[in-house]
């Protein structure tokens, strides 16, 4: 018989292997039986979304999530185009009605007094987000969608305003960078990588890391080929889309709402799977 210490080491190793296998199985289920999931998100409802991004995604048959600010003139002026984008499978996500940000934080000189989240009440923030949902429903006819925190700000006076919106959305996207397996994803504050000037090789390398670690990767774009102070070159964006298309059998690319629904189902099933 093996010494007790050797048996304990073997048992510990087997337990770690089982936990790892269970975690991989859970993520594989959440990632639609692929290596990883990639979500392409685009913030602020700008002309570049419709001029550059939607045609680029459609050309390689990929779908993304566009987080719309309800008060954006680009929403009002180009509403039929947003509706057509939704009809082709892109998600129209909620980026609040007025895009309020916390003006009390450092580097927030761009925040106007009218749209200063630090001067909002929680009820005002919640009401404006819900009003934007009404607008988005009028555009796409859908009720299931996700939310993106303007400027990544989560709280008003220390209170997480999204807590009152949990039943209004499938999930909410934040701005903290990170790759996570399905079990570790916080559906109230999903990690994302904000892109500003990085190369196509950098974007593809992030995807490769997600493939190797079997995790969720969310890209956060603003301008694509211009139109915003935060921007990515058209060629770099095109390189990323081509890589994703070429590896569609290994990478699940879908709108945030679809990926979040899969994660929610996988997380709900995990405790049941651990029952004897």
Automatic annotation (TrEMBL):
One of this protein's GO BP terms?
carbohydrate metabolic process
InterPro entries per UniProt: Glyco_hydro/deAcase_b/a-brl, NODB_dom, Polysacch_Deacetylase
Q: Where is the signal peptide?
A: 1-30
Molecular functions per Gene Ontology: hydrolase activity, acting on carbon-nitrogen (but not peptide) bonds
- UniProt KW Signal keyword: yes
Q: Which Pfam families match?
A: Polysacc_deac_1
Keyword field? Signal
The NodB homology domain sits at 36-254
Q: Which SUPFAM superfamilies match?
A: Glycoside hydrolase/deacetylase (SSF88713)
Q: What is this protein called?
A: Chitooligosaccharide deacetylase
Species whose genome carries this gene: Hymenobacter aquaticus
